[in-house]
């Protein structure tokens, strides 16, 4: 597995993963185009054949904060350390920029992701009621200092 910069040509395969994992709450192509146009730090995980396994993004406002925008791993590639590698790469970028705190939102019913984030010292700091639409699922806001 190799991490590379997310480019515009990755958007179509990312949308396939989005639809599978997030259904009606998936991001649109326009949302990803906007993230790239705004210069946010996005990465893809590729297998040895160049097939997309996962992706992740980080919006930064140095030196104060960064937000993990998304981390997703193709269903058939989960539980192999790809999400962990993507998260570590995002946190390394935040550290490189001297970011003081990194935040993220995660569905309150996504215990595996919350557990992963907790192993990297993310702590719950709030709830966004009805954040995920159209399911009206709450988001747990988690923060890592330093």
UniProtKB/TrEMBL annotation:
Enzyme Commission number(s) from the entry: 2.3.1.266
Domain N-acetyltransferase: residue ranges: 1-146
Gene Ontology CC, one term: cytoplasm
Coiled-coil features, chain-numbered ranges: none
Catalytic activity entry: N-terminal L-alanyl-[ribosomal protein bS18] + acetyl-CoA = N-terminal N(alpha)-acetyl-L-alanyl-[ribosomal protein bS18] + CoA + H(+)
Pfam families for this protein: Acetyltransf_1
Entry keyword set: Acyltransferase, Cytoplasm, Transferase
PROSITE patterns per record: GNAT (PS51186)
Entry's localization field: Cytoplasm
A single GO molecular function term of this UniProt record: protein-N-terminal-alanine acetyltransferase activity
Protein family (similarity comment): Belongs to the acetyltransferase family. RimI subfamily.
Function: Acetylates the N-terminal alanine of ribosomal protein bS18.
Protein known as: [Ribosomal protein bS18]-alanine N-acetyltransferase
Higher taxonomy: Bacteria, Bacillati, Actinomycetota, Actinomycetes, Micromonosporales
């Amino acid at each position: 597995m190799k991490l590379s910069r997310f480019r515009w040509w990755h958007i179509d395969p990312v949308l396939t993963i989005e639809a599978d994992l997030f259904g009606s709450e998936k991001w649109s192509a326009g949302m990803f185009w906007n993230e790239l146009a705004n210069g946010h730090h996005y990465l893809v995980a590729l297998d040895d054949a160049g097939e997309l396994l996962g992706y992740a993004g980080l919006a930064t406002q140095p030196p104060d904060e960064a937000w993990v925008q998304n981390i997703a791993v193709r269903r058939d590639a989960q539980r192999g350390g790809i999400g962990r590698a993507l998260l570590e790469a995002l946190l390394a970028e935040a550290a490189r920029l001297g970011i003081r705190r990194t935040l993220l939102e995660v569905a309150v019913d996504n215990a595996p992701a919350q557990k992963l984030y907790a192993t990297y010292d993310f702590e719950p700091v709030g709830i966004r009621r009805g954040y995920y639409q159209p399911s009206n699922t709450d988001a747990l806001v988690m923060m890592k200092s330093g």
